[in-house]
Amino acid sequence: MHDIKSILTDIVDVLIVGGGIGGLVTALCLHREGYSVRVHERVAAVEPIGFGLNLQPFSVKVLYELGLEHELDEVGIQGAKALFYSRHGQLIYSEVKGIEAGYKWPTYSMHRGNFQQLLMRHVRDEVGETSVCLNQKLIAFRSYSDYVEADFVNPRTGDINTERAKLLIGADGINSTVRKILYPNEGRPLWRGSKLYRGVTETDKLYLDGRTMILMGNPNDIEFVTYPVGKNTINWACVVRVDKPDVQTTSVTPDWNNIGHSEDLLPFVSHMKLDFLDIRHLIQSSIIINEFPMTDRDPLPRWTHERVTLLGDAAHPMYPNGGNGASQAILDARELTLSFRQYGITPEGLQAYDDRRRPATNTVVLAARQYGSEEILKIVDERSSHEFSSLSDVVSTEELETIMLNFKKVTGSNIQKLNQEPSLF
């Protein structure tokens, strides 16, 4: 290992650790606002890895305001509705999405890797090629009265370099180094007994209208979720409870390299059948399957420490129930921009962002633990383990609507309020 330490003399306004969704959208927003930014990412190349993600209208609004409207249509699918089914294939609820629901902006489903590459291309084109530094793993940082100093190591060469910035944003995911430095005793992510399988399958023909999400089963037992992420690509995920729901830490680090196998999953979903979709074939035909414990972390008492703060999964990792992870990270970027607009590139700006976003995301994290909108699946399954003759015998329409409305309130999905919200730029 080389023991080289080079101090960069140019101090940028904001140094972003992590080139994922949250970090890249933050870079675009802050650049548009007139601030200098630099993104440091530990990987050597941004490959199209990962699986599907969903973007809610409140996050799509921000992306449209950044000029990404037409390109989102190229990399994703505008969602029309979500259908909730019992484990026996009986329809429980139909939820309209995006434009069809009355929003001015659509809901999108897309492959995370394709979306990340789109954002990375825009950062390099708009902010500059040198604004993104790859092969840069954070190892330490120090806050001073007027700036923050961060040390990075190149995992390939061992070279160490130090960067200075007015502020540092930790957007480095659920396994965040920034968060670990701020909270060294926190430990690993928390696990509550469920395993998550994910896969992507190429197909000649999408099911139904090609714009529908399917949610089926019981998120507290076995739940299967699938949705198109491209013209010929379907994403699927399956949650399987394998242990008691006691809180414990996991010995497995969640990442994209934990390979799963269809033969381990198929016995759990053998009873799940839909007239229009062969679930077994969908799983067996997957290009790749990922398997890891479904984890999150407890909410923190604060994200901001002097000139350093957290954003996205580094700040508020959450269960995938409700499909809000990426969307909440984009809302973080928006709120950070507004806070800097009011207080400048200052610790006060970071604290204002913390005060506004942390309570809101804490609520979303806790709501996701209660399964979000998918709570309706749990209720029906636990009240009626067999096929029901009439849904009204199991749950009322009013109860279903209340659950859906409550989760929308928690996540910031108020149609009228969002449609009247002024543009960020």
Short description:
The chain has 425 residues and is α/β, with parallel strands linked by helices. The chain has helices at 21-32, 57-65, 69-75, 98-101, 112-126, 177-182, 262-269, 279-284, 325-343, 347-369, 375-383, 397-411, 415-420, and strands spanning 5-7, 12-17, 37-40, 52-55, 76-79, 81-85, 91-96, 107-111, 132-133, 137-143, 148-153, 160-170, 190-202, 212-217, 222-230, 233-241, 248-249, 288-296, 308-310.
CATH class value of the domain at 5-68 and 110-187 and 298-371? Alpha Beta
| Total beta strand runs | 19
Task: Please name the CATH architecture of the domain at 5-68 and 110-187 and 298-371.
Answer: 3-Layer(bba) Sandwich
Structural class: alpha/beta
Give the overall form. globular
In round numbers, the mean pLDDT is 94
Percent strand equals 25-35%
| Terminus-to-terminus distance | 46 Å
Instruction: Tell me the major beta sheet.
Output: 8 strands, mixed
